């Protein structure tokens, strides 16, 4: 990723879209996910401990596209989906190849993992489409790591963001099932576009430059996926024409996992969404749910004025933004000191900060998907597989 400075002067209050968004109650916020282990030394966090966790630890390795480490992490990600997410999650790979400045004429494979869950009734009504009828909250992070220096892990960049997205998906999964089953059973499914809300996770490949960041040497996976989705047409009469149009908001996480992050609001057109996340953080802190005690909130620019939007960071969102997709970029500025160094490993993560991000992002997804009243009490045994293994995805 690379900082870009520009002039963005639209007022966020002038461009906030119409959106049904149900706030979580204090009770739901307090019980959304389990409390941390009493002693991290004797009871490592089952999801985010850098060494012993079932979710994050297997991602903390070199993940250069086309290498065994990259393939091992792909296997871990899909195995997590099989074990912990509802069988209705659609899993697909978007595959592409490209040469790079570091590999000469050799074609390097890049593979984007797309996870999607839509309401079960979509596409079942008379004359209804399927994919083109759902507005999808889209959560994204990249799972590849730098080619050089050799052995670079990329814990904040972006193993932790990938783990956070899978954590949030699992945390809201049962509530989605309960809400949609009740709606479908009561005949409320398919009652209008506002109810046709789905969620998808993009674990993107090839974000990192192989030699030096440029338009050609970066964002290999996201550029290919955005181009493919721009050219994919849904059936005539669908609510949305392409997969890009069906993205209600593209939320990109990057460089998360270090202490004291400062997350600016980068885009006036989605400042309203930034404000929602900032309010969630503020409420969680006032309720005593968050563990960290930073000098300032993670998201401290809720009151930002339109004339103060002056730049953004080039990242996987750019190919989508260039095609009209609305972006919420959750990336700290300045970048953490470990960025693109060998110190970006599990030993330099701040686990309480990661757990707080898990709470914040889970609450945001739950509110977006209108899950107030459907969330189960926090389950301390969350690492146990909830669904039987499937033979293939």
Task: Write structural notes for this entry.
This protein has a single domain (2-368), classed as Aminopeptidase, CATH 3.40.630.10. The strands form 2 sheets. A 6-stranded mixed beta sheet has the order 2-3-5-4-6-8, with helices on both faces. Helix 5 crosses helix 7. With 393 residues, it is α/β, with parallel strands linked by helices. 26% of the residues lie in helices and 15% in strands. Belongs to the peptidase M28 family. Its EC number is 3.4.-.-.
Short note summarizing the structure:
The chain has 393 residues and is of the alpha/beta class. It contains seven helices and eight strands, in the order E-H-H-E-E-E-H-E-H-E-H-E-H-E-H. It has one domain: Aminopeptidase, CATH 3.40.630.10.
Strand order of the largest sheet: 2-3-5-4-6-8
Domain count, please report it.
1
Percent of residues in helical segments? Answer: 25-40%
Main beta-sheet strand count, sense and barrel state: 6 strands, mixed
Beginning-to-end CA distance, first to last residue: 31 Å
- Determine the CATH superfamily: Zn peptidases
- How many beta-strand segments? 8
Uncertain spans: 7-15, 124-128
EC number: 3.4.-.-
Domain Peptidase M28: 136-365
Family: Belongs to the peptidase M28 family.
Keywords: Acyltransferase, Hydrolase, Metal-binding, Protease, Signal, Transferase, Zinc
